[in-house]
């Protein structure tokens, strides 16, 4: 099956949009792991005496501090991570919506994605009725 340059451009644009969505999903996953780690640290040190010695990893260097110094910093980092997660989730929803609109607009079908919706191919109608792009 040969495709014209316009269809190739549509496929490239679709793949780029999909790649952006996948990168966002990956980044959100990484930040959720960090968020859970911060929550574990907060839970572990909240009940301790504020003057108790603890260690914090800062830029690859282990620094000795007190619980009273570390706990507010970890809480502030957690708030920042949560804010970034909200922003990334909103961005992902927006990009996913744009991707689906692009997919519908150009009649793009992804192999293996919509198998339960698509009927079995018919030999008679496959000659000229399909004008969509198959990725």
UniProtKB/TrEMBL annotation:
Region Disordered, residue ranges: 113-135
Biased composition (Low complexity): 125-135
Record's keyword annotation contains Phosphoprotein: no
Gene3D superfamilies: 1.10.287.370
GO biological process: protein folding
Family per similarity comment: Belongs to the prefoldin subunit beta family.
Name recorded for this polypeptide: Prefoldin subunit 2, putative
UniProt lineage: Eukaryota, Amoebozoa, Discosea, Longamoebia, Centramoebida
